[in-house]
């Protein structure tokens, strides 16, 4: 599958170690011990960057305490090659145009080694802060963006969700709305299944999945050009070698999804 996928072997080789490291987070027998272990040892970059980013939403909320309480949205993404990054920044810009919405954007910790990332020809990470799972309860709503890996979310995003056990125990995210968007190399590569299978994460937290539906209208129906996205959420096609960039139609669908999500999330939070 070209550059975007050609290094799948390296990733697959690397993954079992990571899965083994985080597997206890799923163990139902001892839920109390698991999340603590999973969240107490985040990657160094995560801890450092999260420390600097954590106060951001609280400070902003404090400044606006005189007016109506803004809807605090955490937009959390993972991107290897930048396609999800572009969608994430576009989604964020659109959310920020909505009245009474405050957005903080984060990336999840990388779990692949620098050596593996180099073999995958991955560019350096963006400067967005790395999310600290302990801070999730500060948000009223969530947007998650992640590329597909064989039709499901990338393991980096799954690893992040695996570190939310403590919040699950407290029911801290119960009832909070969330929307999602994705990226695949090809049109049949998982635009729908990647989001559909990710809904399980939301369900277990009691979160409310807000789909994109067909709110983007014509953009959703045109068949003259190849494009990502589905009623499940916005999406882009990276191409087999990763060279294709998000098209204007795909970005517009993300903007519409953002606007629609803000409307629904504000109603739920009211
Ligand atoms: C291990 C691996 C598995 C992948 N599986 C799929 C797949 O099943 N379907 C697909 O269309 N693309 C697949 N891809 C391509 C990625 O989805 C693509 O690189 C990604 O969407 C680009 O987004 P990003 O630039 O934000 O990382 C795979 C890539 C890797 C490395």
Outline the fold blueprint:
Blueprint: H1 2-6, H2 8-22, H3 33-40, H4 44-53, H5 55-63, E1 71-77, H6 83-96, E2 101-107, H7 114-119, E3 141-149, E4 152-153, H8 155-162, H9 165-170, E5 177-184, H10 193-205, E6 208-209, H11 218-221, E7 235-237, H12 248-269
Parallel strand pairs: 1-2, 1-3, 3-5, 5-6, 5-7
Antiparallel strand pairs: 3-4
The protein binds flavin mononucleotide (FMN).
Could you give a short description of this structure?
The protein contains twelve helices and seven strands.
Explain this structure to me?
It catalyses: a quinone + NADPH + H(+) = a quinol + NADP(+); a quinone + NADH + H(+) = a quinol + NAD(+). It is an enzyme of class 1 (oxidoreductase). Its EC number is 1.6.5.2. InterPro entries: Flavodoxin/NO_synth (IPR008254), Flavoprotein-like_sf (IPR029039), Flavoprotein_WrbA-like (IPR010089), FMN_Rdtase-like_dom (IPR005025). It comes from Edaphochlamys debaryana. The longest helix has 22 residues. It contains twelve helices and seven strands. Strands 1, 2, 3, 4, 5, 6 and 7 form a seven-stranded mixed β-sheet that branches. It has a single domain, classed as Flavodoxin domain (Rossmann fold, 3-Layer(aba) Sandwich). Helices cover 44% and strands 14% of the residues. The relative contact order is 0.17. By secondary structure, the chain is of the alpha/beta class. It is globular and about 50 Å long. Flavin mononucleotide (FMN) binds next to helix 1, helix 2, helix 6, strand 3 and strand 5.
């Amino acid at each position: 599958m070209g550059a975007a996928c050609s290094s799948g072997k390296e990733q697959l080789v690397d993954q079992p170690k990571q899965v083994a490291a985080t597997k206890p987070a799923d163990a139902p027998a001892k839920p109390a011990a698991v999340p603590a272990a999973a969240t107490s040892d985040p990657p160094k970059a995560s801890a450092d960057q999260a420390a600097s980013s954590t106060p951001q939403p609280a400070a902003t909320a404090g400044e606006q305490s005189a007016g109506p309480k803004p809807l605090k949205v955490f937009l959390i993404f993972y991107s290897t090659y930048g396609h999800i990054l572009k969608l994430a920044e576009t989604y964020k810009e659109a959310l920020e145009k909505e009245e009474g919405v405050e957005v903080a954007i984060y990336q999840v910790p990388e779990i692949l080694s620098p050596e593996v990332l180099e073999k995958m020809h991955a560019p350096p990470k963006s400067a967005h802060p790395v999310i600290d799972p302990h801070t999730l309860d500060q948000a009223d709503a969530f947007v998650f963006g992640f590329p597909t890996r064989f039709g499901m979310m990338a393991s980096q995003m799954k690893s992040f969700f695996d570190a939310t056990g403590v919040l699950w125990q407290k029911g801290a995210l119960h009832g909070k709305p969330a929307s999602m968007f994705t990226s695949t190399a090809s049109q049949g590569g998982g635009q729908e299944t990647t989001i559909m299978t990710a809904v399980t994460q939301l369900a277990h937290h009691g979160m409310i999945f807000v789909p994109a539906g067909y709110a983007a209208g014509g953009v959703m129906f045109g068949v003259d050009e190849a494009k990502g996205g589905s009623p499940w959420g916005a999406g882009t096609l990276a191409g087999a070698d990763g060279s294709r960039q998000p098209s204007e139609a795909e970005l517009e669908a993300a903007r519409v999804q953002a606007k629609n999500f803000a409307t629904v999330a504000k109603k739920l939070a009211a």
